[in-house]
């Protein structure tokens, strides 16, 4: 890997465009290096993972809206498929629909470093583009490898949330780069597409703050849609604002820290294999990633309390000692009263570690629907326990969160449960059980199991088998429409009826 220093440059400075970060990204995207077998295997896993969570969300309201919008944009030639239904539709609208389905339940892969990300968000727009252009499975593999590589390394080098910029600002450029790889575009065209994609996908983090709405699911899907359109424009010769990151009125100067800040972004050298996807991890539980290890810890603590004859009704307080991110984004440090409100939206509750820990401790299990149901959130005993839980930042957990040493990088914390009689029970967990370094790391078997579980009753068994056979043969696949998954008519009929829009 090569570290690139990225800083603001005044317009009068001599700053050749070959030194721009967008050009460095384009060089990585245009590199014809082969994709290693381990990367290919994980790409297949993540396509299965995305399909699994999309099936679980396909009949939900926001996903239904996105699907209907896509269906209003059919095409007679080319086009892309939309999860759940037959037909081909305009690629950018299919990307919006499928990206929303994948993101809706906050249940797919993650990478956390200086910034946050869900790199699996690259897959829907890349797949839609590949289907539209009639590309092969090998082409798609190359594009996804690039998408992950760019997003993961931007996340390592450039913190967005510190300045309240949403993490999808790293996604637009990564999708544009991945499309460039798939299509074999030249560096100059990819450079312009990366710049346009960043410029059009920068937004604030309010989509994940306060009254969290369905836009949380749409935000990355919209970024993917914008990246497709950016590539389309630049292939026609249209340019982008430049230098997009380093300009005097550019991204770093006014969206991030200031013209004085220098960022260090690692990127592969020419000829270096793209392996960043191997540093990422998926979710066993449908909740924000920082809740994964605490959920597993709550399961273990439930057993511990039972063995000791202790009751949750007798708890005085629970304090979760954890990282800066967990405390300030999904913990009490966020100062969001909505995170303690039983009438809050599902999107808000899955960003409340206090709610999540209470339910996991009481139930000893987690379900993507039942654990968030209004009747579950409104149980009096749950509300009482929930409001006894608080978080505090522990500098050591913050340090481990930001460590570049994957052997010590951690996303968990320590729970201290104090009972009314003074009894104290403690436990801690650094990573989730499903994490590569956890107690039960996810492998192909677990990804398939997750798909079968979430597709059960939604997708016919024969269709499940057809999809799983197709995706596991991705390297030899020539018809990428085989990666679509169709749901039963009965399940689609259960989707909510939505008001008409423009289309």
UniProtKB/TrEMBL annotation:
One of its GO terms (molecular function) is 2-methylcitrate dehydratase activity. Residues 19-260 form the MmgE/PrpD N-terminal domain. Keywords: Lyase. Belongs to the PrpD family. PANTHER family: 2-METHYLCITRATE DEHYDRATASE (PTHR16943:SF8), 2-METHYLCITRATE DEHYDRATASE-RELATED (PTHR16943). This is 2-methylcitrate dehydratase. Residues 285-475 form the MmgE/PrpD C-terminal domain. It catalyses: (2S,3S)-2-methylcitrate = 2-methyl-cis-aconitate + H2O. Its EC number is 4.2.1.79. Monomer. Pfam families: MmgE_PrpD_C, MmgE_PrpD_N.
């Amino acid at each position: 890997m090569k570290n690139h220093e990225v800083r603001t440059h005044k317009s009068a400075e001599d700053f050749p465009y070959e030194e721009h970060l967008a050009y460095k990204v384009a060089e990585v995207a245009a590199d014809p290096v082969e994709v290693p077998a381990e990367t290919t295997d994980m790409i297949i896993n993540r396509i299965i993972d995305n399909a699994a969570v999309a099936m679980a969300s396909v009949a939900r309201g926001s996903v239904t809206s996105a699907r209907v919008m896509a269906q209003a944009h059919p095409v007679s030639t080319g086009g892309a498929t939309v999860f759940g239904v037959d037909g081909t539709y305009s690629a950018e609208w299919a990307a919006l629909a499928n990206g929303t389905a994948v993101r809706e339940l906050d249940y797919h892969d993650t990478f956390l470093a200086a910034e946050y990300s869900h790199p699996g968000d690259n897959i829907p727009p890349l797949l839609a583009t590949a289907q539209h252009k009639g590309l092969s499975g090998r082409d798609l593999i190359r594009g996804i490898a690039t998408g992950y590589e760019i997003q993961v390394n931007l996340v390592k080098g450039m913190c967005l949330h510190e300045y309240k910029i949403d993490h999808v600002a790293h996604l637009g450029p990564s999708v544009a780069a991945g499309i460039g790889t798939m299509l074999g575009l030249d560096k100059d065209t990819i450079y312009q597409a990366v710049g346009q994609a960043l410029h059009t996908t920068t937004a604030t983090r309010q989509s994940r703050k306060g009254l969290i709405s369905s836009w949380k699911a749409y935000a990355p899907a919209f970024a993917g849609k914008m990246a497709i359109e950016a590539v389309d424009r630049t292939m026609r010769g249209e340019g982008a604002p430049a230098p997009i990151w380093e300009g005097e009125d550019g991204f770093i100067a006014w969206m991030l820290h200031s013209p004085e800040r220098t960022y260090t972004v690692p990127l592969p050298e020419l000829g270096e294999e793209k392996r960043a996807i191997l540093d990422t991890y998926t979710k066993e539980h449908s909740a924000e990633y920082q809740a994964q290890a605490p959920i597993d810890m709550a399961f273990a603590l439930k057993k511990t309390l039972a063995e000791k004859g202790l009751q949750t009704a007798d708890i005085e307080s629970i304090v979760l000692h954890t990282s800066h991110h967990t405390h300030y984004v999904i913990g009490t440090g966020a100062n969001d009263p909505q995170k303690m409100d039983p009438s809050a939206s599902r999107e808000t509750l899955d960003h409340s570690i206090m709610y999540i820990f209470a339910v996991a401790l009481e139930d000893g299990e987690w379900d993507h629907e039942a654990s968030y149901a209004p009747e579950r959130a409104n149980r009096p005993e749950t509300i009482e326990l929930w409001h006894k839980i608080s978080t505090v930042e522990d500098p050591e957990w913050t340090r481990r969160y930001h460590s570049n040493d994957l052997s010590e990088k951690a996303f968990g914390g320590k729970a201290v449960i104090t009972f009314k009689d003074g009894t104290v029970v403690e436990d801690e967990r650094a990573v989730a059980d499903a994490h590569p370094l956890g107690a039960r790391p996810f492998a192909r078997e677990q990804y398939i199991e997750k798909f079968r579980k979430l597709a059960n009753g939604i997708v016919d068994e024969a269709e499940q088998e057809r999809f799983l056979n197709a995706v596991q043969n991705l390297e030899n696949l020539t018809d990428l429409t085989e990666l679509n998954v169709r749901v039963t008519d009965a399940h689609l009929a259960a989707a909510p009826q939505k008001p008409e829009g423009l289309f």
